[in-house]
Design brief:
By secondary structure, the chain is mainly alpha-helical. The chain has one domain. It has a two-stranded antiparallel ribbon with strand order 1-2. A hairpin with a 2-residue loop joins strand 1 and strand 2.
């Protein structure tokens, strides 16, 4: 059965299409991402069906973590979410939890790729949908094979190549990177909220998704941390502290019996990063 798009990722994909239609293509220099969703994206969010259980548990609102008015930022955010999915899949594969890894390998191609496909062509990035599908098929058919690692590395490299299609000065810009980090963390907070019900983690996939997003957001921050420390020391200290505290919420790839923090506390930590990012 085809997996239903999560509202947050459907919202991001539709919003990206809307901003491309309005802007006529990617902006040359990027800039700070707006947190205001487009009307088309807002309509998509409003029509989303949260709450389908089982594989992936579709809960979460997703409106706050949706598309921006900057197609470059939306493009980078989608690729960052792909990276987060694959990072947690890699952890699960290393632990021998192949069935648990499957949805995290499936999400990038099923939920996110369509939102960036047109931009890949415009940016002269080789398509990699078939590669992601091959990786997913191999995870199901031969998860212990040496070929899986090769396919995994090649898929990760393809996403990295798509990220590198953005101008280097933009990828190194604190304003741009912080805007992407904020969107990724908002998505993580929504996923975590969907995972926790009545003080218990009931959706392992959503917990794991949010873990991957936070880990990659922290990695992204490290690319600008030195400049932030030199030019915005107070903001850097606050952001680094919030990220460090966020990482403690996901102590292992397997959900703990009792949540480390309530979803409201995670949203507060994300808000603290957002406030220091502007």
């Amino acid at each position: 059965m085809a997996k239903q798009l999560k509202p947050v990722e459907l919202f991001l994909a539709v919003g990206l299409a809307a901003t491309l239609g309005a802007c006529g293509g990617p902006t040359p220099e990027g800039g700070e991402a707006s947190t205001e969703p487009s009307p088309t994206a807002d309509a998509a969010h409003g029509g989303g069906e949260g709450g389908e259980g089982g594989e992936g548990g579709e809960g979460g609102e997703g409106g706050e973590a949706g598309a921006t008015s900057n197609p470059d930022a939306d493009y980078m955010t989608s690729l960052a979410l792909m990276k987060g999915h694959l990072m947690v899949a890699e952890e699960l594969i290393a632990a021998g939890n192949y069935e648990e890894a499957e949805p995290h390998i499936g999400h990038p191609v099923e939920e996110l790729y369509g939102g960036v496909e047109a931009q890949l062509a415009e940016r002269n990035v080789p398509p990699f949908k078939d590669q992601l599908n091959e990786l997913l098929d191999l995870t199901k058919s031969a998860p212990e094979s040496d070929q899986l690692k090769t396919e995994f590395d090649e898929s990760t490299a393809a996403i990295d190549g798509a990220i590198e299609a953005l101008p280097a000065d933009q990828r190194q810009s604190p304003d741009f990177v912080l805007g992407v980090i904020t969107q990724v963390l908002k998505t993580a907070a929504e996923e975590y909220e969907a995972a926790v019900v009545d003080g218990k983690i009931v959706e392992a996939v959503e917990y794991q998704d949010s873990r991957g997003f936070v880990v990659y957001a922290d990695q992204l921050y490290q690319t600008i941390a030195q400049e932030m420390e030199e030019t915005r020391a107070e903001d850097h200290t606050a952001i680094a502290k919030s990220l460090q505290e966020l990482k403690t919420v996901w102590p292992t790839v397997t959900p703990p019996e009792t949540p480390v923090k309530e979803p409201a506390d995670v949203h507060i930590l994300v808000l603290q990063v957002e406030q220091r990012s502007s």
